[in-house]
Sequence to fold (978 residues):
Amino acid sequence: MSPTKEFSLAPFDLVLFGGTGDLAMRKLLPAMYFRHYEEQLPDDGRIICVARSAMSTEEFKQEMERTVRQHVESMYDETAWASFCDRILYLSIDITDQAQYQQLVEVLGEVPDRVRVFYLSTAPGLFSRICDGVAKAGLVTENSRVALEKPLGRDLASAVAINDELAEVFTEAQIYRIDHYLGKETVQNLMALRFGNYLFEPIWRREHISDIQITIAEQLGVESRAGYYDHTGAMRDMVQNHLLQLLVILAMEPPVSIHPDAVRDEKIKILRSLKPLSGRDVLDSTVRGQYSDGTVNGKPVIAYRDSDGVAPNSFTETFVALKAEIDSWRWQGVPFFLRTGKSLQDRRTEIVINFRSVPHSIFDMPRVPNRLIIRLQPEEIIKFQIFAKGRGDEMRLQSVDLDLDFNQAFKKRQMIAYERLLLDIIRGNQTLFNHRDEVTAAWGWIDPIIQSWEQYQVEPIPYAAGTWGPPASSALIAKHNCGWLEECP
Amino acid sequence: MSPTKEFSLAPFDLVLFGGTGDLAMRKLLPAMYFRHYEEQLPDDGRIICVARSAMSTEEFKQEMERTVRQHVESMYDETAWASFCDRILYLSIDITDQAQYQQLVEVLGEVPDRVRVFYLSTAPGLFSRICDGVAKAGLVTENSRVALEKPLGRDLASAVAINDELAEVFTEAQIYRIDHYLGKETVQNLMALRFGNYLFEPIWRREHISDIQITIAEQLGVESRAGYYDHTGAMRDMVQNHLLQLLVILAMEPPVSIHPDAVRDEKIKILRSLKPLSGRDVLDSTVRGQYSDGTVNGKPVIAYRDSDGVAPNSFTETFVALKAEIDSWRWQGVPFFLRTGKSLQDRRTEIVINFRSVPHSIFDMPRVPNRLIIRLQPEEIIKFQIFAKGRGDEMRLQSVDLDLDFNQAFKKRQMIAYERLLLDIIRGNQTLFNHRDEVTAAWGWIDPIIQSWEQYQVEPIPYAAGTWGPPASSALIAKHNCGWLEECP
Fold:
């Protein structure tokens, strides 16, 4: 029996609303193919793609041939691909027309007791309509689940409204709110590092840590998402979800177990411990930026305001840096510096733990702290920056790195986030999905910041594309230490 | 100004007693050449080699050409070698004849105020005679120092006697007792790691460390040293000095400064904190071994007892494993497992810090601890063994290593131990030399162990050459954890 077969799943029907969309073609269908290729899917597992386009299943498979296949790359295998395509059904449904749900009733009704996943890969405005539609069509069984992508609202009120609508049709245990960062193996590894090793826990606290930096830097600009993005901005698009999720995993107390409730309880606790930022305090603790003309990777980039689909006088931020604090015994007084931005100098998701300084230095040594650097993207590496005696006739300390490169340590391919997430939805494991209370708590912390920006008319500071954001970002951190990682020697 | 010139020394006369001996030719003269080659020696620095053989300085230089030069290897340079030879004087002196010291008086008297080092690279039986000789000849000035090699006695009483004799001629501040392990850059790096980094100190204590292993394993057998060795054994030859010194550096409290007194005070404190082992307790806490026939590195090795110069019924141990404990707040209850031996499977000086187990494991993970492995020889590497999530669709932890290879981190050549030690003697820095009280404390702990072996007639357990010693060595540690590093997965 192959190792993956141990984890094979119960029969399922996966219904992809938005089945012809970008996410389905680039991520969801390739992810399911990879699991099929590695023989983890049961024979009785169907993928029912739903979209408005009039198309037969055969025509949809031809479409897949043209789009999905290129994302499968080196794992393409003729036999596996053919048998994967046998799982696919396409239904042309106008989801605003209740009568058309009958097509789904007929297909799903063939196996009424099967695990049934409604994956809402559509515009958020349609979430409510679809839930209503499947409910009225009598499709929501005990074994049904619903999965949703961000954005789950654009503020606390709209998020509560969406969650209330979902709750009319599904129980909380049936709802899978996706933050695809949680599906990344690298992010799961953060929990493994913290709670699977003795070494880190004793020093993972205010007594020993000076500050923590979390960076999600993109080189891409706003590209084709301008219409959506200009009404959203970096705070809603990245900070409220991905950055806060990383902060939470770094800061949470050891959970009782890896049971979903145990893990999510600890995460909610951190979100509720975030020191509120509001009013004038926001001005000191946050930096809003917007990229102007510049050069990224040697290519000219036009200013955000000049991009197609962006208002020429747009106030939307493409960069945020902020200082968060956690009111708890473990973290009191330890700043968490978060930043994210578009059109930055480098592409990188990276966590930097700066330890305190040696309290009494008996050596001639550099004035930088010991650091633990955890890079999640583009490579998965861990680095302990320490000091050792340089060679030669002196006791002079130099910086050296203890390195771990996961690609070298594990020859096995890294799963993409959606493979893990789709499997967990099918098998009913909510650990890597956000509880309603997490979403509420995160928006509850973000809302007053955005309100303060609006109240004080905080205009985003321009930064040249291809830099690390506005200088104010460096100034924010300079009050506490030498700077962001790339600014410290 | 080149970096090494900053550290250039005052003019000196280095007098090597035993100047034609093995140590002088293999280590001391090459070490001085290396420092000369790197331009660290002042122009007015002479090396006066003293031995019994009738030879002119010119003839001695020809001897050096044949012997020393091969140990200089890639750093040989014709010009540097020629100017190095200009520093050399040879004096043929029978050191048991006081009249012959007059030759030294004439040479050293040319520069009476110069730093003057008497390096006793002779049989220990001659130490006292030489000290007496130089004193009677009026050669011991305020700027004089004496350096001695092990063995400093074969038990507490004889060590005290030697130290008393030295004290009649030299003050403690003039006496440089060499443990060449302390001259190794790798050993100095232990102090740098412990006290130059914030990271290690908080976890470097009983609350977090389960046990510590220190191994000095040799592949060589007794070779040409049989006559000396058979009257000495591994306990006196390796444990009393090198192994205890490594233990002390690992266990000591942070010193106030790197001033020699501050460092040596902390070292003495640990030696005095060693929990005494005596009487029947010794039988449980120590393992004596002696190698029998076997194969090392594919080559047949004859049993120790069958070696030239070894008594056929010799009781001398070529292997020791023991459990030491330190009575202190920091270390109470943490066993320090020490072992050393000849004709073992591998050549390796290695320290293994085993941390405690995760107190509450929420993951499926291996049952081995996090480890910090510090290898001093043959390569200088540091490894943090931790656990990370293995790739794939499970939260199963696997062992991975954070690595640091000093040869890759520092391109610069590593100094040999004697370069550092000789320089420190010349400049008058006693940090890396043993204080009289250290020698006394070490023998005071070792003596009762040897006495107990004699009292209970503990015969060394035979082990095949090319193994890791007798099985009793594994049994000693198995009461506490899975075993020596090579025995644990």
About this structure: The radius of gyration of chain A is 24 Å. Chain A touches chain B through 64 residues (CB under 8 Å).
